[in-house]
Every structure is written in structure tokens, then in C-alpha cells.
Amino acid sequence: FFFKQKTAYEIKECDWSSDVCSSDLPEKQKQEESGGLTVDNSTAENYCTIFTISESPKDSKIIWAGTDDGNLQVTNDNGKTWENVTANVPGLPKNTWCSKVAASNFDANTSYVVFDGHRNGDKNVYVYKTTDLGETWISLAADNIETFARTILEDYVNPNLLFLGTEYGLYITIDGGKQWVRFKGKVPKVPIYEMAIQQRENDLVLGTHGRGVLIIDNITPLRQLTDKVLSSDVAIFPSKPYIITNPKFAYGISGDQEYFGQNPSSAALITYYLKKRHIFGDMSIEIYNSDGNLVKTLPAGKRKGINIVKWIVRKKPPKVKASSPLLVFRTAFGPTFPPGDYTIKIKKGDKIYESKITLKPDPEAGHSPEEMKLQFETLNKAYALLEDVSFTDKQVTGLRDELSAAVKNVKEDEFKNKLTTLAEKLEKMHKELVSTNPSRLSGEIRLAEKIGDVYSGVISYSGAPTKSQIERLKLLNEEFLKYRKELDNILNDQLPKINSQLKELGIKEIKVLTREEYDKS
Fold first, then answer.
1. Which helix (H) or strand (E) covers residue 243, if one does?
2. Side-chain half-sphere exposure of 308, counting CA atoms within 13 A
3. What is the value of pTM for the model shown?
4. Between the CA of residue 455 and those of 243, 334, 447, 469, 516, what are the distances in Å?
5. Rounded to an integer, what is the distance from CA 239 to the centroid of its chain?
6. What is the rounded average pLDDT for all residues in the chain?
7. How many angstroms separate the CA atoms of 497 and 479, rounded?
8. Residue 10: is its pLDDT beyond 60?
9. Distance separating alpha carbons of residues 243 and 322, to the nearest angstrom
10. Residues 175-195 pLDDT 10s
């Protein structure tokens, strides 16, 4: 495209590398440098490249265009006529490059424009807004913006939320441009050439010079910074529903030209605003399920401004014997918490602030609610069984060690043999409950490893477990109950008699680990 005053000229094919902007070229040269095509008006005096163009989302007949010689043109009749409104812009030096024009997402007559004079040694900020199709303009520049701007972007949800890309990083306003602040959250002080909002994810995408593409995840909290929020001591923003997914693994080998970005967090995000930094007293975040039971306590972010706290929506991995590498590998993840509504409570001193967060099953999993419910129930049965086996093994080894220690202080042979025999029996039970070989290549599989195999298979698939998995878990549970019954008989029948004899001999009685103590450990 080329512009001369109020007349627009269109060239459908052009060698843009020439970037012709001269009034002194002979007609033949103009034809050659424009790809051999002749413009509609051969008497045109000035030709310049359109550097930025924007069609109004509210009215497709309105199109804005800015050129590299400082002109800003607008049409409201699909390009039949154009008007140069540059002269209406206050305080703008002549021929200042129009680097960005952005039609408003909310009003057809509103637009934002950025002019850039650094090529002429002018590093002042030229940012303007019109609400009457370019007839009048107001400046949005501020003293705290360090140097010249390159681009501007209006949010598509909140018209007061604007983003300004400058030579020294990103600036944000939440009041339509009255006040600007530089965004410092991992956005370096580099030139920002272009910006866009990915509407599905609500992410702000920045095209920079020297730092590639930067993405600011989920700008939703910025949209909600109203005067009411800013005046509140604590304000919890509505949380995006968390989609429950199972762990996924991928392996690959890339060359030396790989480009990659950080994956989005797999945690649920709790976002809130603090008017002041919390310094004194306790502050924490508690998560409660729909039954009112506490399921998680998290440390709270205490900084002034927006805080984001991650909630890993999973139970801790089941407690298993660390000496079994195979078992540890297969139980690296805990089950997710079930779908439903959860209550968030931020406790700040003696005050409590509440909100809600929802966990939803993955709609793209391709499984029915009944199948996913069965998967959840089966997985948690395997989880509980692994914990039961681990606790039982801990009791077994603890009692074995206590008996072995007591033997050293017993002189009477019959009693000593009784303690030794029981300790050996417990050692045998320990080796049947869990693998004791620290090598992953040993191939040693015991009850815990068998349960871990079922657990690993079920947690890796969002759908219903197979009948064989369900049946196998049932048989493994029955096998465990035999060990549990045998140990309970020892604890309830034999141990009281042993402790009675130890007490008579003046030897310290044997204490067995309780489940409550184990769960707290």
C-alpha cells in the first residue's frame, strides 16, 4: 500500500525490500522498484510503506493504517476514502514513524496509536488514544516510562487493561493509561516489538528482540484489579477449574537446534492480592473438601501485590520401602484428589478469607464418568494397600530390632531362644512383604512390588482398570491380610507375655509403632 494525502493507492505485487519513499524517482524507476506495476496515480509525489494496519473488530468498514513517514490514515467506508488524521495528534513531531495502531475491541470509534522517533534521535514516548475516529487525541505517555514505545495492545475483556511494549520492556496500566507500571515478572528489559493475547488460555505473548518469544501465563488476575480489590487487605481471585489428568511420560532425542519453552504448571493455581506485605504472625492456605475435611495445608505467598500459590492436586506418593528401587519408581506419584468443589481458606493472623476451586475430570480423556470413578476407587484401594503393607513392614522390622536388642540383656536360655525365634520369624515375614535387595536388576518381587505393579498400571490410565487388575488387587489384599492377622496375633498374644517377663527381669519393655505415629512420621 502507498498513501498520498487523502488518496490511497494499492499495489498487489511489490518488492518491499526496496522500501521506496522518495518523490524524486523517475516514473520508469518507480515501476521497476514496485515489481513492474504502475500505481493508479502517476503524478503522486510521495510514496511510503504502511508499517501498521488494524481493522476495527466492531466495524469492518473502519481500517486504520500508519506509515513509516509519520502519517496515520483512517477509512470508515471500506477504503473508498481515507483521511490523514496525523495533524490532529498533539505534540507529535512531523514525520515520526507510526509504529503501531490498534483499533479498540470495545468501541468502533476508539483506537490507540504509538509513534516512534528513535531513528531521528528522538526517544520520547508518543502514545495516544482517540474516541472519535481520530478527530481528537489524548496522550497516554507517562514520565515513568523510560524510553520510546514500539507497540500497544488493548485487552479483549477489560478495556482499562493496556499493555505497552517499549525499548526497555513491558509496561501495564489498569486504568486506561492514567498510570503505567513496568512489569518485572521474569520479563527482561529488552525491546518488545509485538504483542498478542491467546484468548483460549488468556496468555500474553510477547515478541522481543534478543530474547525470542515470551509468554506471560494467564493474565486473568490483571483484569480483576479493580479499585475495590486494590483497597482490600486480601482479595482472592476466582480460580480457573483444574482439569484432572494422569501422569504422562514422553522420551525423545533432539539435535543441537532444539527450541523449547517451559510447560505450564500441572498444579492448580490459587491467586490472591495483598494490599501490604505480610510480615508478622502466621499466614497459611488450607484446602477443604466438600465434606469439610482438611486435605492440604500450603505455605502462603506474603508479598505485596499479586501472589500465586501452586497446589499439587495429588496426595503424597504412598510410603514404601526406600530400599526397593523398583517399588519407589512405580509409586512416584500419588493419586489425585477426587473431582468436586473445594474450599480455599487463607488464614492471615486471626482473619480468614474464603474462596472456591473446582476439580474436574478431563473432558478429553474419552472415558465415561463411571469408568473414571472405578479407576479412582481402584487406584485408592491400591494406594491404601501399599500404605498398609509399608506400615505393617515397619512394625515387623521395629519389633524384630527390639527383640534382637532385648536378647543381649537376657541370660536365661529358654527365654532368649524364644525371643530369637520370634525375631527370625519376623525377619522372614519382612522379606516376604517387601524386596530387600537394593539392586533394580535383582528381579526380586515381593508382595509390595506386586501391589506396586497394579498401582502403576492403574494410575497411568484414566479409564476403567481391567478385570485382571481388579481381581489381582483383591487377591493381593487377601494375601496381605494373612500377614496382618499373623502380626496382630503376635502383638496381642505373645508380646504382652514377653513384656511381662522383661519387666520382671528389669529390662525395658518393647514398644511397638502405632499407626498414628507412622502417619505423622
1. strand 242-244
2. 13
3. 0.73
4. 21, 10, 12, 9, 24
5. 12
6. 87
7. 28
8. no
9. 31
10. 999 999 999 888 999 999 999
